């Protein structure tokens, strides 16, 4: 490094802290609502503590608070370094940050008060939607100008994934949220009936794709080779899986609407594009795994690397499970059951959570120029999180399939065998308790991480030394 | 802009290198297989077989009606319930009642939004035959408009079928002597 470039680390530090704050809040609520499903009395005494109010706060908080914060932290850290160009406008970075915080606070308050557009992951009412568009456009401008004035010609894979995210989310968010305001906190969607449903799940599915998948792949492509100082296994795979993933993902939305009144051909299309999606998704996983194998000895000692391994494993698993659930005959059992919830959290806790923790353990020592306070605690965090994920996912599989089969069971006369809803809920009780315990473990690991980070930040400025994870001759 | 920092500003280290590894063969095959399968599926399933969800639904209904006759048990010729005083039927009847009826008529049958079934007042008749007709066919909104009563009720021939309706009636008759065999 000959010329010295001043990077804006402050903004990255703020985003890391924001991720931790929203992660803590949203996961605590996640655990709370998990227990509400076994102890209904936890819904009282306040309206805003009921499941219906807390659930969207959990999902919005975790997706747009926790996940987006760590994605922004990565973008503002990695992109300038990969391009050897500081962000074009630190002022815009700051304006974006504060508008984003304003939106999140507004989201928590309005959702708690019960304002919602009744579209999943697009609950926020129109004033907040407008605010989101403003800071997203600010972000896009800042990002693309930086790209235009870059000093490094080569645009690395991680950046492709961020570009895809910025463009696609803008389109999805605006199109799905088009609505006619009918008062300050009330609006009507411009679409109706099946069109509305189809657009909503085109958005819903791709919110998963372009918030919980592509930017996380971008994170993987940055942190994995940086942390191990090893080359990414294959540039070829990067190219092919990037383009096939981007092309195919967009069409898969109707797999959320199987056996609904949308046309049969659209449903079939959604199902087939989901099946075609296995290979492109696995491309990212393979590229990661094959890079990791070059450092496999260090997997035993390095918690960050372990989190990346777990993330890749769960990514591979949920991108296989998802296409299976898109098959119409499987979906008749899985739809609306806990199985979907298990699928969600395999991806969310394993893939998004794992990669986010790896990012945090990578960033914090560098940002505060010190070494991680305790590698042992990070190791402990890894194990509690992993056991938590396994308990969560496994209990939801059992619960979901049990539930799906009980709903449809008929006796010899053709009548429903379990006409009493409560009877089914009682059968699911133990699995949902286990889910709550798994979630609590995951949250506990998160708290341990926070303690570790506070201790680490306490030593700020004491000097950071990178551990060399390469094996053999360290050329 | 000047940035406050805790030391060196940049820990970027070495540049990321990108390997020249080839695509694993099984992966390439999988990618192609997914695409080929999808094209084949559309042609075969939608175009040649002409599958559609309406027909599938009609087929499932037809299959269901073949295997499950809704009217498996009938009233006696005099219109009374053949399962009256049958201990097994009464026990099953109570379970049926708590499953599908209790939401409106309360678990003990004394009524909530639906009328009380444990007193001697009946809106639609108190004989087995009259009750059987009401429970099997339900009370439609049209009926209520003509003869105002408490509210509508779904037709339980679609959910219970005759066997379970008669079991449930056996339990009711066991609890309430105002329900007459004929
Ligand atoms: C401590 C960890 C967590 C716990 C205990 C937890 C618990 C829950 C519960 C109980 C629900 C409602 C399920 C239902 O309605 O049946 C839920 C929904 C959801 N959670 Fe979590 N969660 C956790 C972490 C996360 C994370 C890290 C993410 C994402 C990155 C996430 C994303 C979601 C999403 C997207 C839904 C909605 C799923 C759907 O509608 O199908 N959760 N969570
Ligand atoms: C190839 C990849 C994937 C496919 C084809 C896929 C497919 C599916 C299907 C079929 C459903 C159930 C829809 C229903 O019955 O209502 C679903 C739900 C869901 N999946 Fe995936 N999935 C994939 C990967 C992922 C990943 C990696 C994540 C998370 C990081 C994820 C998050 C979700 C969420 C949040 C839902 C719940 C949506 C709702 O609220 O109903 N999926 N997915």
Distance between the termini of chain A: 17 Å
Find the count of extended strands of chain A (DSSP E, 2+ residues). Answer: 2
Low-confidence stretches of chain B: none
Global mean pLDDT of chain B: 87
Give the oligomer, counting copies of the same chain as homo and different chains as hetero.
heterodimer
Cα distance, first to last residue of chain B?
A: 95 Å
Structural class of chain A: mainly alpha
CATH topology of the largest domain in chain B: Cytochrome Bc1 Complex, Chain D, domain 2
Helix coverage percent of residues of chain B? Answer: 40-55%
Give the C-alpha Rg of chain A. Answer: 22 Å
Rg of chain B, Cα atoms, Å: 32 Å
Gross morphology of chain A = globular
Give the mean pLDDT of chain A. Answer: 93
Report on the structure:
- The complex is a heterodimer of chains A (about 475) and B (about 180).
- Chain A is mainly α.
- Chain A has one domain (about 5-460): Cytochrome c oxidase-like, subunit I domain (Cytochrome C Oxidase, Chain A, Up-down Bundle).
- Chain A is about 70% helix and about 0% strand.
- Chain A has helices at about 10-35, 50-85, 90-115, 125-150, 155-175, 195-210, 215-230, 235-250, 265-275, 280-290, 305-325, 330-335, 340-365, 375-410, 420-460, and strands spanning about 180, 185-190.
- In chain A, a hairpin with a 5-residue loop joins strand 1 and strand 2.
- Chain A is globular.
- The model of chain A has no long low-confidence stretch (mean pLDDT about 95).
- Chain B is mostly helical and about 180 residues long.
- Chain B contains six helices and no strands.
- In chain B, helix 3 (about 85-105) packs across helix 6.
- Chain B is elongated and about 95 Å long.
- The N and C termini of chain B lie far apart (about 95 Å).
- The model of chain B has no long low-confidence stretch (mean pLDDT about 85).
- Classes of the chains: A mainly alpha (about 475), B mainly alpha (about 180).
- At the A-B interface, helix 7, helix 8, helix 9 and helix 10 of A face helix 1, helix 2, helix 3 and helix 6 of B.
- One protoporphyrin IX containing FE (HEM) binds near residues 252 and 325 of chain A.
